Amino acid sequence: MVTTNGTPNDEATAGKVAPGAAAAPAGAAEMQTAEGTKDIDWSEQLARVEAEVARLKDEYLRALAETENVRRRGARDREEASQYAVAGFARDMLAVADNLHRALGSVGAEAREADPALDALMSGVEMTERELASALERHGVKRIEAEGQLFDPHFHEALFEIPNAEVPNSTVLQVLSQGYTLNERILRPARVGVSRGGPKAAPAAAPQADAQARARASAEAYEQPSEAAGGTAAGRRVDEQL
After folding, report:
1. What residues are paired with 156 via a beta bridge?
2. Burial, 57: exposed, middle or buried (Cβ in 10 Å; 0-12, 13-18, 19+)?
3. DSSP symbol at 204
4. What is the mean pLDDT of residues 193-213?
């Protein structure tokens, strides 16, 4: 378009673009993108991603192992609470058992034969003692058989020594108060008197010592440390899935 004075209109001229002018910037951008792509180190990027995956996997396995430890600890606490909840009550009932045992030991066979009424009374005491022992045993409380056994510090508390050369040294000869266990855990040791001056006892593992070892082993619950999460069974299962 030409103005009145014969010069071209600037607005019309501005709207017209040379044919190769628009293509030039687009081609330059594509060349820059291609050059930038060539500069990326894909092996380095892959290594970074793999390292991040390994870190996240390790954190997941550790968290899984910690969760497993909490579950085991909770199960152990529930089991112990169930097994030893009656410990306080059972310990109080031992005084009753002791009194019944002393009552039976205070009356001899001759006195019972001479007095039928006394014999009937002592028979009732015997029945009461047996019923109490049966009730305690139903709840896991068992009497420790101490007399005639070799002294075991896990089960016996030695109060005095008795000179005796006929039995092995440290044999329990007298029981002052009975000992009891609760589900193989010591509830109260037996208070005893042991022999002194006899031959040395042969070194042999007593059955009671074996039971005590089992009790100690059961009390020490194994907990898998979180630092070794990759070695747990749960960790191995997750490792296989991943």
Report:
1. 190
2. middle
3. -
4. 69
Of 226, 216, 217, the closest CA to residue 70 belongs to: 226
Question: Rounded to an integer, what distance in angstroms lies between the CA atom of residue 234 and that of residue 136?
Answer: 40
Residue 177 backbone phi and psi in degrees, to 5: -145, 140
20-24, 70-74, 141-145, 186-190: range with lowest mean pLDDT: 20-24
Our CA dihedral for 52, 54, 59, 60, rounded to 10 degrees, sits at: 110
The pTM of this model reads 0.55
* 186 DSSP assignment: E
Give the pLDDT confidence of 36-66 residue by residue, as tens digits: 555 677 888 899 999 999 999 999 999 999 9
Largest CA distance in the chain: 159
